[in-house]
Design a protein that fits this description.
124 residues, alpha/beta, 2,3-Dihydroxybiphenyl 1,2-Dioxygenase, domain 1, 4-stranded mixed β-sheet
């Protein structure tokens, strides 16, 4: 059995919040756009990763996910985010820090409560 990709669904009461985090801040591209529908939906992708953003008040109120994105240049990602979207930096992890498990990390947190941790492994 082989899998090639994991594409999570993330629910928002207002899909524009997710677009700001993933498209504007993290530079994902919209590959499928049904954003003007009665129940807005979009697929966003970057570097072989995919995420489904779905506007659904019911499901958004039930779950606020925490995701991890791995990179090989955390300083570059951090400097772009800090310069352009400092309000998205998580208040409990707004600086890059080396964690006890050996990864460098910082986190983003949008106004709906979705958390994205940026991490880099194999740090010397």
């Amino acid at each position: 059995m082989k899998f090639t990709k994991l594409s999570p669904n993330i629910f928002y009461t207002d899909i524009k919040i997710g677009l700001k985090l993933f498209v504007d801040c993290l530079e994902f591209k919209i590959s499928y756009d049904d954003l003007d529908a009665q129940e807005p939906f979009g697929v966003i992708e970057k570097d072989g990763l995919g995420v489904h953003l779905i506007q659904s008040k019911e499901f958004a109120e039930k779950d606020r996910p925490e995701l991890r994105l791995e990179t090989n240049n955390i300083e570059e990602v951090y400097s772009k985010v800090k310069a352009n979207f400092p309000t998205l930096l998580h208040p409990n992890s707004k600086e890059i820090s080396l964690k006890p498990w050996g990864a460098k990390e910082f986190a983003l947190h949008d106004e709906s409560g979705v958390c994205v941790i940026i991490q880099q492994w194999n740090v010397q």
